[in-house]
Amino acid sequence: MASAQSTSERFSEKLMQLLDRVEYRRVETGEDMEEVARIRYKAYKAGSVMHLGDDSPLLIDEVDFDSHAYVFGIYYEERLISTVRLHHVTPEHRVTSSGKVFPDEINAFLDAGMSLIDPVRLAADPEVWNEMPAIPYLTLRLATMATDYFQVDRCLQMVKPAHAAFYKRVFDADFVASPKSNHGKFIIDLMLMATRVKEVLPRLYQRFPFFKSEAFERRMMFDRSAEMSPLTVRPTARLAHFGSSRIQIGQAARAS
Predict the structure, then answer these.
(1) Which of 18-27, 58-67, 79-88, 134-143 is the least confident region?
(2) Which residue segments constitute the domains of the chain, with CATH numbers given?
(3) Which of the 8 DSSP states describes residue 162?
(4) Measured between alpha carbons, how far is residue 250 from residues 25, 152, 245, 246, 253 in Å?
(5) Contact 108/165 with Cβ under 8 angstroms?
(6) Count of C-beta atoms within a 10 Å radius of residue 212
């Protein structure tokens, strides 16, 4: 048990150290969107994920600009290493990429009054992937932040069957729908999973504190009000984790 805990703590600290060199950027300008699209193209071509031609290097669609869609670039030492698009899906606003593949399952959630975060278009630079296998954690931290900010009921995972074990192990994701093939542009099988956010999030933060964030970081990432323009944002996981730990220690000392 102690050994397992030590391994988990070492892993978390390694991720914290990587986050110290990471910046997140909400992408809303044409120049940044083209850079994101090039990463998508490189990743999908390397992974044989979609039907792509050599003459179609840019992967941008109208959904990237939906009012409930948030496209992010993840920069490591000022280099774009990955990207993800997050949909805030509600019963009143049902624009979602996963819903195109699994419409019955997604509508069942929404008809029950639930709200969802749908992370899609996750892509990492294949030239960086082998050097930095932690990229999925750095990228999916944004999905965790979105579930917290919007206080949703489920976080979806539309994934390859081979990746299901990762999402079950890390995010305690439940099976929702069996793999489907021959669905539009994708040339891989995709299955649907979902995390019960309000139940799982506290345990996730305890086990993997690098997923934590301060409220002001979440606000800078997702607030689209006039006074909150898109920014390059530094992660606050270390502050959220060790800051709260110091407060707890101080409170315990005063109580004794």
Answers:
(1) 58-67
(2) 2-251 (3.40.630.30)
(3) G
(4) 35, 32, 9, 6, 5
(5) no
(6) 25
Query: Chain centroid to CA 149: how far?
Result: 13
What is the C-alpha separation between 63 and 98, in angstroms, rounded?
12
**Tokens linked to 32:** 């940044």
Buried b (16+ CB within 10 A) or exposed e, 146-183: bbbbbebbbbbbbbeeeebeebeebbbbeebbeeeeee
Residue pointed to by tokens 């069957």: 161
Helices 164-171 and 197-207 meet at what angle, rounded to 10? 80
Phi first, then psi, for residue 171 (nearest 5°) are -110, 5
Contact 149, 116 (CB under 8 A): no
Tokens matching residue 232: 């390059």
If phi > 0 it is left, if psi is from -120 to 50 it is alpha, else beta; for residue 43 that is alpha
Q: In this model, does residue 228 exceed pLDDT 90?
A: no
**Residue 13 tokens, joined:** 């600290």
The DSSP bridge partners found for residue 82 are 74, 124
Token pair in block for residue 79? 């280099």
Tokens for 108? 């069942």
For CA atoms 70, 76, 79, 80, the dihedral sign is negative
What is the arithmetic mean of pLDDT over 31-55? 80
Looking at the DSSP bridge assignments, the partners of residue 85 are 71, 120
Beta bridge partners of 155: 117, 195
